[in-house]
Each structure stands twice: as structure tokens, then as C-alpha cells.
Write a structure and sequence with these properties.
43% helix, 16% strand
Length: 320
Amino acid sequence: MPNLKSTSLIATNVDFNLKLSIKITNSIQLRRATQEEIAFFDNEYNKARIFSPSITPIHRIEFLKNGDDNQKSWTPHALPQGRWKYWVLDVDNDNGKILHQVKALLSILSPSIRLIFTRGFENGEYIYAIPPSPQLFDIIKNDGFESEFKTFIMNPDDIASMLSYLESMSDPSSESLSITIKAIEKFHDLQSLPPHSSMYLLGLFSVIEYIITHKPRSNESLDSITHQLKNKMKMLNDLYFEAPQSYIKYFPKAKSFDALWKELYSYRSQIAHTATHSVGGDFHILNNPDSILKYVQDQTKNLLKFSLTHHNFLSYLRAC
């Protein structure tokens, strides 16, 4: 049997308190890149700039904030070589499908772990490379902490915990878990869209609906998708997710969770059914598109992570 292996660079602005490497699973290793790999990655970045000139590799620099917390001024500083952030994931016995599942699971972490510049090897010999899509760099920039500038120190255990579900990705043990796995794959597939496009936001809503809503029953007046979303997401936020008032940091004008989600779903419907859409006007809570995107994305991730461990409960909730 050939020994297949893939190696991918972590493009997200994260760092790890590791000397060299750590075993994540029996077949996956997190480690620092070699000098040969760094040269390869740097060359790939240079080629990618032809299509995405604004790409800013973050592996050799850190950004320091200037002034108070209200300012958005950051200054790049070169890191000494010993602190470079070239981290790679090795996946053994990778037939392509495994790496896709790894990427899907890591996309629901906070921040999302994005893998690029994948190379495949057979018995130690290089056999292929996978170029990233141009919009992937926009997604990486979009889902960083405080934009792409702040380096997030991540615990490798968070990656290990998420990748412990790899076996379930290939062989779900129940119908309820199968729905969760399909939802995670749907979320990951959204990275083929520009992150600030209306279709990306519409896709996030579709993932939420897929997990917790059912087709409205015609004989029940309080069974609309809007009603289901407001009530079910409120219960999940109050009992299982963040503090109930966490939405205030995104929408300072929101006086209640119900009012917020009513406007959010109206905004979603405007995207789906009209030629134009914008905040303001009839929307009194929604302040800007970036806040809407970030909030709905965070809510989708929270729901997906919760669903991995509570898929039976969500199956019951979906039917209610």
C-alpha cells in the first residue's frame, strides 16, 4: 500500500506555545514548517498576489495597536525567525477526502483554521499541489480576530478536540449526527463565496435553518420560519451559548433578542426576494453589514459546535 501524506500551511493568524511539533491524532501532526517548506510557501504567496494583490502574509510579522481601544491603527513589526508563525498540519493516509473533512471541522473553530498551499506526497515523493481560491484570502482576512491584525494564541487541544469527530464525519452513528455533519459541510462549502457577498450571508442563514427548523405546518399560525428561529435561537443562547446580552456588542440599539432576530430574518428575506438590500430605512437595529455578517457567522459556529455534542437534542428541537 502506498504511504500517502498531505502537508498544509495554517493561514489563519494564530500561534501555538510549542517548540516543534505535537501529535493531534494518530494520523495528524501539528508542527513548525521546515526551511524548505517556508521557501515554498513564500513563493506560493508571491504567485497568489497576481490574482489577489492585497494578500498580507502574517507569518513573519505581528501588528501592534497604536493609541486607545477606539483607534484602528496598527503598525507591523518584523518577528525574529524563532517566532515566525509558519505552522503546518501533516495528514497521514490522506486520500483527499480526509483533508476535506479536516478543513470542514476546523472551519467552525473560533477563529476558523484555514489551510492553504497543500502538497501531497506518496512514499515521500512530491506528487501534487492544491492552489487556494482567490476568495479564500478574503475569507481569512474577514474571520480573523479584530480583523487580520491580532494574533490569537491557540491551544492545540482545541484542534485535537474538534478533529476527534473525524470518524463521525465518515460514518455518522445516527440520523441526527448525519444532519450535523451535513450542516458542517454546508458551512465549509460557503468558503467558495466571497465573505462579504449577500449569498454568503444567505448561506449562513440556510445552515441555521437546516439544523433547527422544520417546514411550517399550515395549520399552525405560530409555526413560521421566523417564529421558529427567534424562539429556538433565543432558548439556545439563553441556556447554552454566550451570555444572553452578547448581541448588544454587535447591535447597540437592540432592545430584545426577539426584535433583533425579527429584523435579521427580514434582512435575510430582503436578500432572497428583492433586487436590492440595505440597512437603515425600516431596519432600526441593524447598523452595518459587517456586524450582521460577524454576528450571524458566530451564531452559526456556536450552533454547529453545540450540535456535535447535542445532535439528539437538536433533532427533537427541530421537530418542535
